[in-house]
Structures are given as structure tokens and as C-alpha cells.
Amino acid sequence: MRVLIIEDDITLGKTLTQLLNENNYQCDLAENLGDAKYYLDIRNYDLVLIGWGTGDHNTSLIADIKKDAHKTSVIILSEDIDKESEIEALRSGADDFIRKPLDEDILLIRIEAKLRFGISNIIEIEELIINPEEEKIIYQGNEIELKGKPFEVLTHLAMHKDQIVSKEQLLDAIWEEPELVTPNVIEVAINQIRQKMDKPLDITTIETVRRRGYRFCFPKKIS
């Protein structure tokens, strides 16, 4: 599960990152609104933790997250004790509101609950079903054998259907240390998708946009 932490208290942000990493979450830490928007543009998150005091645009940020990625859960971490702040956050689309100082055990339980009962991440397009949680693809009732990085590349592109995604964006979104791998790993993953899925099924799921990247284009029959 991937989590974005938006917190301008650097010490708290690092503490939260360490806590979640120790509990098998993949975390990115944004210390300001600009960094937060950067991460949200290049990656898909299961959960976003927002320090309510981070910047002056909390409500619009929540609305943007829910508009672009409605399946992402949002939890507010706030020092405010007034009821009005909680009401404002929840009305803006937040899924939960937790007051500081944080109890780490309670925070982990609340995160687990939101991810467990949150909206399904399953992608359904006509007869194609992609289930990221179970790493499973089903087409016309039959399961397709595609695992690992090719599956993650396909899923990321499907989540950004009809958008052009560059190699650099795919590397940043999927590989833990993108600076340590070469861009040709994307080409290898795309080729595996086409060999194991597109050609046997006589469909096209991904098209190459010259010099710009790749785009998920299913349904599109091969002529």
C-alpha cells in the first residue's frame, strides 16, 4: 500500500514515515503543497495523510484528490480542537479526522480500517477487469497470467486511461529507486504486456506515443 504524507512539521513527517515503513507501507513525504502536487501528479496513492495546518489550501487539496483519484482515502491530522475544523474537513471530502498529538497505535488502526473498508481499486472496462489488490487480470471470464512490474505498468496506465504517461513518470510511480534503473525496463514491461496479453487476446491495451510515452487505449481492436 502506498501512502503520501503531507506534513510541514519535518520531525513529525519523518516520524510518520518511519512508523509506516516499519508496518510495510510505502511512503512519500511532502513538506509543502508544491511537493504534494508533484507526488500526486506522478503516483497513485491508496491513502493520503494531510497535516491540517499544511499551507492555506487544505479544502481545495482534498477536493482535487477526490476528483482525480476518488478511490484514494484521505485522513486529516490536526491540532485544531474545534468542531468547525472537523466539519469543514469532512465536508471537503476527507474520510477521517484525527487530532494531534497522535497515538501511533490508534493511527495505524484507523489507517488499516480506511484501507480495508475503502472504495475498491478494481478497474473494469467492458470485459476487462484489473484487480490491483490481488494482482489479477480477467478478460471475458478468463484469468490472464501477468505479474510483477508488467502488471504494475499496465495498472498504472489503466488508472490514467487516455492520458499519455512518460517513461520517467512510470519509473517514478512504480520503481522504488528509479534512479538505479534504466528506462529500457519500461520497454521490456510493455513488450511483456503485448506478448502475454494483447497478441493472444487480439486486443490492444497500450499504444506508444512517439517521443512522449505510452497511453492505455483499450478497447481498441487490432486491425
Automatic annotation (TrEMBL):
Residues 2-115 form the Response regulatory domain. Residues 120-218 bind DNA. InterPro entries: CheY-like_superfamily, OmpR/PhoB-type_DNA-bd, Sig_transdc_resp-reg_C-effctor, Sig_transdc_resp-reg_receiver, WalR-like, WH-like_DNA-bd_sf. One of its GO terms (molecular function) is phosphorelay response regulator activity. It holds the Pfam family Response_reg. GO terms for cellular component: cytosol; protein-DNA complex. The keyword Coiled coil does not apply. This is Two-component system response regulator.
